[in-house]
Amino acid sequence: MFIKASPAGAELLAESTGTLNSLQEGGIQEPDIADRASAETDRALELRTRDRERKLISKIDAALERLVDGSYGYCEETGDPISVRRLDARPIATLSLEAQERHERMERTQRDD
Predict the structure, then answer these.
(1) pLDDT band for position 1 (50/70/90)?
(2) Does 11 lie in the same domain as 45?
(3) Same domain, yes or no, for 39 and 12?
(4) Which of 54, 72, 90 is the last residue before a domain boundary?
(5) What are 45-95's pLDDT values in tens digits?
(6) Does position 31 have pLDDT exceeding 60, yes or no?
């Protein structure tokens, strides 16, 4: 089943395309080194923002697919239902609160090694 992109999703994709087009136009042509550094910082921030938006769109698409296949609202790790409060707060959640906390503890433990 194909799910039509929301107006917000279409807008994010259009903005992303605009960013890519401006990046392909060439390097920053500011003569002053401070202006060039500022423009480069702005450019890096915009790229990070676009990357976060792209990842969010992907997560939203995955949540919509889970709605279609009937697996939305169930923890991918345990199969238990995800609480309505958690889904209200984070509709793209794939893990129950307990599984997410375990996952984060494991990440911290592995990062500390």
Answers:
(1) very low
(2) yes
(3) yes
(4) 72
(5) 988 998 998 899 999 999 999 999 999 999 999 999 999 999 999 999 999
(6) yes
* Whether 39 contacts 25, CB under 8 Å: no
Q: Which is nearest to 73 in space by CA: 53, 96, 89, 42? A: 96
Reduce the DSSP state of residue 81 to 3 states and report it.
strand
User: pTM here?
Assistant: 0.66
Residue 66 CB partners (closer than 8 Å, separation 6+): 72, 73, 94
- Residue the block writes with tokens 């990842």: 55
In the beta sheet, which residues pair with residue 81?
74
Please give the residue range of the domain that contains residue 92.
74-113
> What is the Cα Rg of the chain in Å?
20
State how many domains the chain has: 2
